[in-house]
Write a structure and sequence with these properties.
alpha+beta, MetI-like fold
């Protein structure tokens, strides 16, 4: 019987202990890494949720404020080309900011110096008067020309030998809370002059162009996805699929430019109208835009259906078309509905392409070739120069869009749930 050399067992035990400690160290490192990534993912998820919640809260607060509070607590004054002005005995150095007049003030006295000459402006305030044109009554002015360039704003112009040097005092009255019903049902959108914020024509325009694009593009997208997944050879289908994915990634402004250069002139020529920018052009462009997204998701969902379902249908004598339409498409219903939801969301939320082809007139659509404006186009066109109540109303339009998309998606999901219950 062979015997181990002296010291061999001791070395072996040391190696075993080293291996065990090495394995233990590796397990400990893995556990530390797992704990690190677990908390990292938690922090990232919480940060994302908080960011999204903050955005939604900010938009909703800004959108609700115009219907719950006046535009300002009291009268505000801003001047042009006046360095120092005295208001009710208090001197202000003008730097472009508003001078806030406390609520409930009955009289306002203004004084400033112009070319060594003192200018005065006195007025009484009737805060109980609802008509903005009757809230102010001027009792004394030294050479000022009084005008009302827009609702809730009175401008007093003090002429100078050179028009560019004339000095102006703008008195801005607080706008009362706006009626939600007037906002949703009003037909006049005049945010600058009359302070009217009726979005009904733009709401109808958004729904008309969205549903028109869906009715035109959705059947084509479903049939195209079915053809790619079930009838086209794999190699050729892969080539077509790559092109569709490329079309899905093209910026919307490119589609709008295509519509402006091709579809708009065609509509103008065919229908013999002064301008081809209108509802029909917007529907055609938007229908083309939603096709790649819905086709790609539909085709992916159809390919995910198990081959055994197709074989079972074919073995019962069903044709390939019957199998594709009544079996494969039915089993891919969840993915198809997801594609429909994405298509509807893109149609309702599209902006740049519609700005180029829709005409952008805030009026009720009277026909397929008439100019329209959508809610998203209104936000994009006016947010750059809007301020005060006007800016808040644009946020209110964003809230309406959010609720509109939520309602449409809820209806689709409810329909899907009901059909599943009937099948069971």
């Amino acid at each position: 019987m062979d015997s181990e050399p002296a010291g061999t067992g001791h070395c072996k035990n040391k190696l075993d202990r080293g291996e065990v400690s090495g394995v233990t160290g590796m397990a400990l490192n893995r556990r530390r890494i797992d704990i690190f990534f677990k908390y990292l993912f938690r922090v990232m998820s919480l940060t994302s949720i908080l960011a999204l919640a903050s955005i939604l809260i900010f938009v909703f607060v800004q959108g609700v404020v115009p219907f719950a509070a006046p535009s300002a607590p009291g009268i505000r004054i801003v001047t042009e080309r006046i360095e120092t002005i005295t208001v009710n005995g208090q001197t202000y150095r003008q730097d472009g900011h508003y001078i806030d007049i406390p609520a409930g003030v009955k009289t306002i006295d203004l004084a400033f110096s112009a070319g060594g000459e003192e200018k005065f402006l006195e007025m009484s305030v009737d805060s109980r008067e609802k008509d903005p044109e009757k809230q102010l009554a001027f009792t004394e002015t030294t050479g000022g020309e009084i005008s009302s360039p827009e609702a809730y704003t009175v401008t007093v112009n003090f002429p100078a030998p050179i028009a560019a040097l004339s000095q102006k005092v703008h008195i801005i009255l607080p706008e009362p809370p706006y009626s939600l019903w007037s906002f949703l049902s009003g037909r006049d959108w005049r945010p600058v002059y009359n302070k009217q914020y009726g979005i009904f024509p733009m709401l109808i325009g958004t729904l008309a162009v969205s549903f028109g694009a869906i009715l035109l593009g959705l059947p084509l997208a479903l049939l195209s996805g079915l053809f790619l997944a079930e009838f086209l050879p794999d190699k050729f289908a892969a080539f077509i699929r790559a092109g569709i994915e490329l079309l899905a990634g093209i910026p919307s402004v490119v589609y709008g430019f295509f519509g402006l250069m091709v579809i708009v002139p065609a509509v103008k020529k065919i229908f013999q109208v002064p301008s081809g920018n209108g509802l029909l052009s917007a529907v055609l462009v938007l229908a083309v835009m939603i096709l790649p997204t819905v086709i790609a998701i539909t085709e992916t969902s159809l390919r995910a259906v198990s081959q055994s379902h197709r074989e079972a249908s074919l073995s019962l004598g069903a044709s390939k078309m019957q199998t594709a339409w009544f079996v494969t498409l039915l089993h891919a219903k969840s993915g198809v509905i997801a594609g429909v939801i994405l298509g509807i969301s893109r149609a309702v939320g599209e902006t740049m392409a519609l700005i180029l082809v829709a005409g952008n007139s805030a009026q009720m659509p009277q026909g397929l070739t008439e100019s329209i404006r959508t809610l998203t186009a209104t936000i994009a066109l006016e947010m750059g120069y809007a301020g005060g109540r006007h800016s808040q109303m644009l946020f209110s339009i964003g809230v309406v869009l959010f609720v509109l998309i939520l309602m449409l998606n809820s209806v689709i999901l409810m329909f899907r749930r009901r059909t599943e219950e009937e099948e069971e």
